[in-house]
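Handoff note, outgoing to incoming analyst
You'll be picking up this chain. Sequence as last confirmed:
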Amino acid sequence: MRLASFNVENLFSRASVMNLDDWDEGRPVLNAVTDLTNLLEQPAYSTADKARMIQLLTTLGLADSDTGPYVILRRNRGALVARRANGLEIVANGRDDWIGWVELRKSAVNEIAMMNTGRVIRDVNADVLAVVEAEDRPALLHFSDQILTMAGGAPYPNIMLIDGNDMRGIDVGLMTKAGFDIGAMRSHVAEGGAESPVFSRDCPEYAVTTPAGEVIWVLVNHFKSKGFGNPADNDRRRRAQATAVAGYVARLRAEGFRNIAVMGDLNDTPGSNPLEPLLQTDLRDVSDHPSFDTGAFAGRGTYGLGNDTDKIDYILLTPPLFARITAAGIFRMGAWPGSRPARWPVYPELQRKIHAASDHHAIWVDLA
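Most recent structure output, in case you need it:
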């Protein structure tokens, strides 16, 4: 059987600010959204808070309208802001004075990129596929039935996604072929409480029964990114997530389960402090197996240009599963290869960076 993990970076629609060619363009917007959201959730707004809110609203293009180039200010009840001749004024004095939020605007994913995503999933041909950054379960169903079919692949009959904590619509899900049935499920969206959830998205646990009757528990993850926000806070969040996942694996093993796979985008490198609680258990990284194939490019990275320092996607296995590996590797044909020179072969349809299936490369493992 083949396990694989692929960060698809959305299938049909994506936050417009995350669709830009250059990530450095989008970073200030996401930072401003984070800062503004944190201020808006405070029970009382000080004079300094209000001044900062005005700055952030202006940065986000909301000085003249509730709709900016990348965000929308949703106001359901009450008033947050008044737009006067002499400028913006924050008229709410705290969270109880109004109901609303800041929402990222979405735009369609490039059609060629969408089809290349289908080609990657078709060619990786996993029996059990962990999907990262999917909008929702209906999107996965439509993608499987329509785009994957158009790309010449076979639709997945078993698809599950549990809504997570990220309002941008970047959740984690699981797709499995016929005979690989999804049974028991556990969600951890509420871990840590509503005010400070541990997981940026979720760490769902899925019990998959193979055609031979064996049960494999698959834990799908997408840890906190380094992309925006305070780096120290991001590191603490990833470490807390790694600690929690290690605890779930320990609990499953104590319950008598031997076959466990942790898969997904952990958003950090193997030697990092945040991932230490997970990577220093006896879980084995498939990229450490002698059969691991990086393809035409020697780097072990799973993101961007594939350098060793770009390894952030993982398949981690308990020792009994690791012992059954027959092959493993990285699939890069849908990823932008650079241009001077190209680092690996790609689909002929991938002519520009925007045509890439994802910034991430799929990672896979075959098990006897």
